[in-house]
Amino acid sequence: MIIFRLGRIRAPQGPGVVLLLPFIDHWQRVDLRTRAFNVPPCKLTSRDGAVISMGADVQFRVWDPVLSVLVVKDLVAATRMTAQNAMTKALGKKSLREIHAERLRIGEQLLLDINDMTKSWGLEVDRVELTMEAVLQPPRETPLGPPATVPPVPGLDGTAQQLAAHLLGNRSVPSCAPLPPADSVETVSEVEPAGAPHLARRTPSADELLAAVEPVLCEALVGQVGASFQVDIALPGGARSSYFIDLSSGSGRAGRGVPQGSPDVVLELSEKDLQDLVLGELRPLSAYMSGRLQVRGDLHLALKLEELFKAMKQRR
Known about the structure:
- Helix content is 33%, strand content 25%.
- It contains 12 helices and 11 strands.
- It is globular.
């Protein structure tokens, strides 16, 4: 127990019975046992251009309770942010192959780097274990940029392929219909001039993302979610646009504007974060915990939107 008597710190007391002076002493408990927290999976880019979702499990203990109280207000939050920044910096210097092969050694190096920053807080990290959630984008074949022809990516979920087809002007195939076989899809170089930019790399707009939502709406999904949402999108130019996803009755509806009546939940996020949610690269809980998703209303209902994104990912 750390005690402040009239604003001056005393030597640590306890464990056991500790006498306190009412209105004079202020105290704070410090747990000296080994504790643990996890760094939520975040999207990182490796040296060879691969995009991965990587998290970490961290074990730590307090060795100086006085420093841990005087120097840092929220010890776990500060250590988690330090670990996440160190992990991002270290993995950005490694290729995907090196990350797979040297995960233990990278964790040991992260342990030393984090301890260098937290030793002045009276805290020592005992273990760092990296956890790879998924490889979101394979590494580049050559360092010169994307190839002239881009064949369909194996394993790409149906929603992403529908959005790519939508951006390339292939509007004859409805998004609810099965996609053609991979060998029948033309490459970009066959349908546009060689000097034209690769349109599939453009970020889909909010209207295009909401158009991909409509085909998956159904009564079963309404039964799972049972709520209406207003989605306020922050556009790159600073403007804002509102959309609605009504999963409270019937087969559900989605479109531009605000829902009829008061929405159960109001969501605020950027257009890029909406794209990551729709394509399954970001989970609603992770977006909320990282501050990328602002929620007004029932958080439990807001997290039910993950059922919608799962349904979009399963649709082929």
